[in-house]
Amino acid sequence: MAAALAAAIVSLFSCGEPESPDFDFEQTPVQVVRDMSILQTDRGEATMRMHAPLMQRFNFFKDSLQQSYELYSDGFFVDAYTENGQLETTITAEQAKHVTTQGRESWSAFGNVVVINHIKGEKMETDTLYWNQAEKQIYTDCYVRLTSDSGMLQGYGMTSDERARNSVILRPFDWYAVERDSTYSYIDTLNQMGPRRK
Questions:
Q1: How far apart (Å, rounded) are the C-alpha atoms in residues 147 and 189?
Q2: What's the predicted TM-score (pTM) here?
């Protein structure tokens, strides 16, 4: 019995390398942030606010290239402001992803993506939206529904500037218009109450 105990102790404290668990770095975040909030300013004025309940950052090598991305899996909320501090554009989505590869960045939002331009009174709904920061454009190839107080337009594919000021549906298939008299004008009631949202 003493010999068996000695053998067990020797094997327990032997100089062999301990087994390390196999990590799949593509599935294991290197950073997790809860209730993330970002404020972007220009000369002291807010230009953009972003909030996400959960951010997970992944960093790994694949095919000899370093891959890095942030996943916002519990929702994604962005407010963009004009130069005068008015809330202009709101973007909400169920998920978002920010990819950085070799100095190039790309953003994408997925699941019930809603883009509202409060100043123009336009609301765009789609399933997937991409943001090209270099060209200051948002776009999608998916189904899009664009509504305003003057009517509704739907189709496939959309391109716009990043503030959703000039949205164009690429392949429209259905629309209707609301007739208004010549004295009607849209009023941005949200910014009349104050541009800042808590």
A1: 17
A2: 0.75
* Domain spans in the chain, listed from the N-terminal domain onward: 25-192
Pairwise CA distance, residues 158 & 134, whole Å: 18
**Residue 55 tokens, joined:** 């951010």
Top-level class of domain 25-192: mainly beta
Closest Cα to residue 186, out of 151, 162, 153? Answer: 151
Residue 15, pLDDT above cutoff 70: no
Tell me the pairing of strands 104-117 and 76-81.
Answer: unpaired
Taking the C-alpha atoms of residue 21 and residue 17, their distance in angstroms, rounded to an integer, is 12
Q: Are strands 45-62 and 31-42 parallel, antiparallel or unpaired?
A: antiparallel
In sequence order, what are the beta bridge partners of 81? 87
Q: Which two tokens stand for residue 101?
A: 């590869």
CB atoms within 10 A of CB 144: 25
